[in-house]
Amino acid sequence: MTYTLNIEIIGWIGSTFVLFSFMFDGWKMRLLNGIGAAMWLGYGLIQGSLSLAFLNGIIICIHIFKVIQNSNKL
What we know:
This protein is mainly α. About 90% of the residues lie in helices and about 0% in strands.
């Protein structure tokens, strides 16, 4: 039971980061959303949900790509 609760906490914290990220723009949004996506990636892998892990892995890659793309414009 404790193990399941700890896994759920990871999911809830990840959700909080994702929701909170929508209050920001630019790199702050990408950072917070990326942290949430990373937590959801881990949650998906632990739970055995490959679709959840895949989606959040792609989201992380998009954030990294966009941060690099925007830093090249400076």
